[in-house]
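G., the chain you wanted modeled:
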Amino acid sequence: MNCDLAQKYWELGNAIVAFSVVQMLAFLYALASKEFRRQVEDHYRFVQMGILGGSMAYIVGVTGCYYLELGLRESPIDQNIAKALSETFCARVIIIVLYSALALGTMFAGRRYGWNQE
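Predicted structure as tokens:
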């Protein structure tokens, strides 16, 4: 039973990362619209805070899934499994940070070099 529940947390961690990536890609795609860029410029700080806050929430969610999954796995955990879980956790956090940085960097570059250029 616990292994099945641990597997659910594994899947939830993957879903959180996938959602964060899709959300950032949708945001970046939306920046192609001049009207959307104007709205982002009008609320630049709020958009930045939203991206950072959302990223932190995703990281907290992934962290929670990781620790809940570890707690549900049968102890003691094989070292190879523990290492794979740890590396996957780190990769998930890095993916969230990279996509958030991409969105923030795109916003910064757009603001600095001109949003209105087509």
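The chain has a mean pLDDT of 91.

Shout if anything looks off.
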